[in-house]
Design a protein that fits this description.
Blueprint: E1 2-3, E2 13-20, H1 29-47, H2 54-64, E3 70-75, H3 77-84, E4 89-93, E5 97-101, E6 104-105, H4 111-114, E7 134-138, H5 146-163, H6 166-174, E8 179-183, H7 186-195, E9 198-201, E10 213-219
Parallel strand pairs: 1-9, 2-3, 7-8
Antiparallel strand pairs: 2-5, 2-6, 4-5, 7-10, 9-10
Helix pairs in contact: 1-5
């Protein structure tokens, strides 16, 4: 399954994702990526579940029918608290707190979300994390900020979820949708690119050229 960067007609839709980044201590880069990937999968499952609110489910399905654009923002302190009051938010309290908002038009973002900074989130840390059934692998030849990479691993987790059989997806979600995130070694990237079931090609809105493959994902099922 491959994400295509084709844009729908009219105003684009996006899923707004907010990462909690306090100053002290600041979260680690890969912890943010792992938490964001899991949060996106869990939120999408909740937003599209049969028991979800009708409007929430309709908005999620409308967004999912086109390019799966995500905007990753950062917040701390009062800014984090204020955006939690926006209706239709799901919070994943993983290694790093991540709030995922119901997708909508990019010109209709709630002010409490819109005021949060998008660009410039660059964190340190290259811990390996724990083993997980889903392996999300970053392109070693593409430099991305933490925020950009978080959006890309979110795309990968979503595509994995959508490709899994229902029972397998349910089991993964029940376990918190865990993933590993790592950067590929140079000598394995071409093999992964040719064999991975999920390949994410970016739309080129920020940081990288349109069509750039940013991440791939494999899973153990």
């Amino acid at each position: 399954m491959t994400y295509s960067p084709d844009e729908r007609e009219g105003v684009p839709w996006a899923m707004q994702v907010v990462v909690r980044v306090e100053k002290d201590p600041a979260p680690e880069h890969l912890a943010v990526l792992r938490s964001t990937a899991s949060a996106v999968a869990l939120a999408l499952a909740a937003f599209t579940a049969p028991e979800a609110d009708d409007e929430v489910r309709a908005r999620a399905e409308e967004w999912r029918s086109g390019p799966i654009r995500k905007v990753v923002r950062r917040a701390r302190g009062a800014g984090w608290t204020r955006q939690l009051a926006v209706p239709g938010v799901l919070v994943h309290a993983g290694e790093v707190d991540v709030a995922v908002h119901v997708p909508g038009r990019v010109d209709e973002v709630d002010p409490e979300i819109a005021r949060l900074q998008v660009g410039g989130l660059t964190l340190e840390g290259a811990d390996a994390g724990v083993e997980a059934p889903v392996d999300v692998v970053l392109n070693p030849r593409v430099a991305m900020t933490t925020g950009k990479a978080a959006a890309q691993v979110g795309h990968a987790a979503q595509l994995v979820l959508q490709a899994l059989p229902p029972e397998t997806a349910a089991a993964w979600l029940a376990d918190g949708a865990p993933v590993t995130v790592r950067t590929a070694a140079d000598d394995e990237w071409e093999r992964l690119l040719a064999t991975a079931p999920v390949v994410v090609a970016d739309g080129g809105f920020t940081e990288v050229a349109p069509g750039t493959v940013t991440v791939v994902a494999t899973h153990g099922w």
